[in-house]
């Protein structure tokens, strides 16, 4: 799961902020609030992003990959980006922020 915000570097925090602008077109909520971004690491300008999708067969994977790469590369200090699609831990609705749940009409 994503490291605590206090443990992210300034550049990693900026990448997370940029990723909050990447909207899942099916759900209309950004990837960060959906809980789909598991980890962001930036070392010497190289950004590694571990993420998942809501379903294994998500037809929008390539489009999201392009949008996530573009968002990461928009951050000062990031010169390249690799996305690692992972399936463990499996995504579930409990990983969404309260904002995402309210926006989707999910009440706990």
From TrEMBL:
The record's annotation in InterPro entries points to: Fe-S_Maturation_MIP18, FSCA_dom_sf, MIP18-like
A Pfam match = FeS_assembly_P
Cite the MIP18 family-like domain residue spans from the record. 12-80
Gene3D superfamilies to which the protein is assigned, alphabetical: Fe-S cluster assembly (FSCA)
* Annotated protein name in UniProt: MIP18 family-like domain-containing protein
What organism is listed for this UniProt entry?
Furfurilactobacillus rossiae DSM 15814
């Amino acid at each position: 799961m994503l490291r605590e915000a206090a443990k992210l570097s300034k550049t990693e925090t900026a990448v997370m902020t940029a990723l909050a602008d990447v909207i899942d077109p099916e759900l209309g909520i950004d990837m960060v609030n959906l809980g789909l971004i598991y980890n962001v690491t930036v070392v010497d300008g190289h950004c590694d992003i571990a993420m998942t999708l809501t379903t294994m067969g998500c037809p929008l994977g390539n489009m999201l990959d392009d949008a996530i790469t573009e968002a990461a590369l928009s951050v000062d200090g990031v010169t390249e980006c690799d996305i690692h699609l992972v399936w463990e831990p499996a995504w579930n609705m409990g990983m969404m922020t309260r904002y995402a749940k309210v926006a989707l009409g999910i009440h706990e």
